[in-house]
Amino acid sequence: MDPQNNEPQDNPTPKDLPILDDRKVETHTMQEDLQKASPEESEDQEQTPKETADSPEPQIPTPPTPPLIPQKQETKKSIFDKFRKPKGIEPTAPDIPKLKKMMPKLSAVEGSPEKEERQEPTSDISDQKPKISASEKKLDIKIPGKKSRLSMIIIFTVILTIVAAGAGFGYYWFFAKEAPKETTNKPTQEQPEVIEVPKPVVKEPKIKKPIKEVVSIGIPEPKIPQTNIDFAQTIITTADKKDKSEFIKNLRADSKSIAGDGTITRHLFKISNDNEKRFLTNKELMSTLGISIPNDVWPYINNIEFISYKVGNSIRYGFIAKTTNEDALKENMKQWGTKMIQDLTQLFMGEPITIPENPAFSKNSYLTFKKRYINLISPEISLDYAISKDYLIVATSKDMMFASILQVQK
Questions:
Q1: Nearest to residue 315, comparing CAs of 248, 270, 367?
Q2: CB 272 within 8 A of CB 279
Q3: Cys-Cys with 51: which of 18, 24, 164, 174 at CB 3.0–4.6 Å?
């Protein structure tokens, strides 16, 4: 018998054994013996019909023993085996479907074994792979990979947060926290009420401070011309240059500041600029304002004062001059005659006047003055002049003439 061939062969019957014709002989195959010898395989018995009790059992030769397949001894496992790499070639996984085909099928119905068809192996015993135990199947070699750094980052962040919180709390506790104020329940002492007595007020005598003259850098201010007539008030009209329109314009504006009615006001005219500061002289004043006086009259008058007379909203203008020869002045004034109205028209400051067809002066006297006058529109507007041994007065209304005569008598 070839040990590599598992197929059963018919053994020749020994010559010494009797031949039984009708008796049933119980036979055993080598495959059945192998199945009985293996503890892991289930028993598969083929029952044949028994011979009669009377027939003797034939003697069957003992079949040869099957070859023993050495099983791999299990080595003791260590707790560090999963961290070690396997040595040599890794064992191949067993071919489970092929092994299942080599195993005979077992079935049991009501506790009695049934006869099953035998499935002969298609390969030799030598081709069968050694059986691998369940413990070896479950062996799983794992190589640990690189650990994730997420857990380390989380732990580091938590530690840093705790340290920062501790530092902040320490700074607050030792530096920022205010010490609690000590509250002592001390009895409050009532202080006596203090009444302050005011000090007596001593009036100190007022010391008049000396008036300091303002020293101007540049051209000094001119002195105000002196006069012997006692005027109630004096108004100075200033212009940048010797110009008729500018002086008349400023004169009208300054005359609005005259205080009181029925008073005679003195007017002075001054040129003030970077080059000169001075008051106008007699002839400059008359020529600048457009008032013409004959040359026959100028030798007998001097110190001309330009005056105004205010009553309500009406302002009249004229002038007062000192005389040097009363008789000569009266004669020259008569020769001037009615032409005086046209030469002295500027004294009306643009106010319209009506000249009569045949103008003629009327005459009278008042105190020491000899008067002559012409009514133009009404007694309120007229041209009057009066002469005394001291003064020549020219006025533009009768009321102004009377007030001017009284003014020079003071």
A1: 248
A2: no
A3: 24
Q: How confident is the model over 386-397, as pLDDT tens digits?
A: 999 999 999 999
Q: How confident is the model at residue 27 (pLDDT cuts 50, 70, 90)?
A: low
The C-alpha angle with vertex 280 and arms to 390 and 406, in degrees rounded to 5, equals 30
Residue pair 289/244 in contact (Cβ under 8 Å)? The answer is yes
Judge whether 403 and 309 are in contact, CB under 8 Å.
Answer: yes
The answer, as to whether pTM is greater than 0.85, is: no
Q: Tell me which residue has tokens 């499935």.
A: 119
Strands 314-323 and 391-395: antiparallel
Alpha-carbon distance 96 to 82, whole Å? 25
pLDDT at 140: 53
- pLDDT tens-digit profile of 330-357? 999 999 998 999 999 999 988 888 888 8
Q: Which residue bears the tokens 């059986």?
A: 131
Handedness of CA 326, 328, 334, 338 (dihedral sign): negative
> Strand, coil or helix: what is 333?
helix
What are the DSSP calls for 123-145, one per residue? S-GGGSPPP--HHHHT-------
Query: CA–CA separation, 83 vs 140, rounded Å?
Result: 11
Q: Which two tokens stand for residue 390?
A: 């001291």
